[in-house]
């Protein structure tokens, strides 16, 4: 990277309105623009206002929310939807701590966001100033990079440094703390260290060791019962086209999780979603791309020990973690999969393709059987409404351009059985941290990123209560969405385990919520609200919500009363703890 004054500085001098000087806040804004940031999510505070002034000059949209948790989730959601750096800006103290859940969610979900936080002036260091906390020490464990910025001259340089860390290896968040006097200070433009945009990033599309590409091509071509799981990284790194090409070229049954859901359309012969456990027990070769062996994968224990297990990940440290593997490749998922497909296309399969097609037919038959068993739950008219029926109706409602967001515990786990996004990137959920409250920030960010798309968020009633007031923010910024609340007046994912362990008398302690008519909340904000108590009323209500959002530019809330005594299979098995 060129750390001397260059043509970028000359450009700054021409644009500067203050006689050749520039403040730290304006340097932040210019550096963010150089990183491709067009929107920041924030809640105002005296420590950070000069950044706003700079963003106004740079044409960066400032979305001010009602709670910093929403701002951080929105920055995460914006990064997931655009593939660009998300940015959250908070004031010091509680502004920072309120955002930490969102930053931690991005950390576990490998989402590239930059959190810029305020701090009291360096001249007040250790004096007990307003909102003073050790922010860098607090953020370091949940970010890839955390640092203070101690001179105005280095502000832009540190922003670019933090941004690079967000995209190094597996993506993730970074944190910069900027003291107020550093941010407000004005310096001569020529004294600022300003990396020129687009001139200091190395290519990160590595395929690793070419010999391993050849090994993997041999393994896959000769495999008779392969299976592949394409995870969050595949979509985040924009490697989904290469993944699709590999699955189709070699006839590999493909399973997807995270934002990679929807990568293959329903009905595609290589799309599978109900037989992952069957495939992992019986496959001879299993390819895991861009998802770790964490609790969602049973730490790798649910995969057959007899299978040849290959793992591809952006992060070297993730490859082989929690489970021994046969072959590991660290690098860019799309680049690796493309190289493997090219290498495999020149090889003879010695008749293995016919056996792979027979294997896919076996899995397809099992999928059909499992769907047939679920259909009575998907279509039941029971009252209170079965949560499976609600999830099924939402899936029937979704359009090709609908982005689906799940925010909750048991209700989101249930929805994963029924909801099938039509395209990649159109599924968003709390991820490995299991954070409740992501929905409003995700929904607002998705709509701001893709105004032409419809956004539908399914909340549990517990998660809805955490961040719902920022629906007003979404409306204020022209980003209305449809909110569906699966309301059972409980925190059901936890409740089931409590009842199983302690019995009915003590099982409802700490998880029983009040009965709230959330449709009234929508009307309070000037939006559309409706209570739904009959299964047959769900679809008409969804259609009315769609019309209200499209026609009036306001959010819609459907409060759907679901049975509190129905649970997802994973909740019953308590798989999240195993």
Q: What report would you give on this structure?
A:
By secondary structure, the chain is an alpha/beta fold. The chain is globular. Strand 14, helix 16 (410-418) and strand 15 (427-428) form a beta-alpha-beta unit. Mean pLDDT is 92; it is low at 1-18. The chain has 24 helices and 19 strands. The strands form four sheets. Strands 3-2-4-5-7-6 form a six-stranded parallel beta sheet, with helices on both faces.
Relevant terms:
24 helices, 43% helix, disordered N terminus, 19 strands, alpha/beta, 6-stranded parallel β-sheet, 578 residues, globular, 16% strand
Largest sheet: 6 strands, parallel
Q: Could you say which overall geometry the principal axes of the C-alpha atoms support?
A: globular
Spatial gap, N to C terminus: 46 Å
Give the helix/strand class: alpha/beta
What is the typical, i.e. mean, pLDDT? 92
- How many beta-strand elements? 19
Unreliable stretches covering 5 or more consecutive residues: 1-18
Helical segment count:
24
Residues in helices, as a percent range: 40-55%
Major sheet: arrangement of strands: 3-2-4-5-7-6
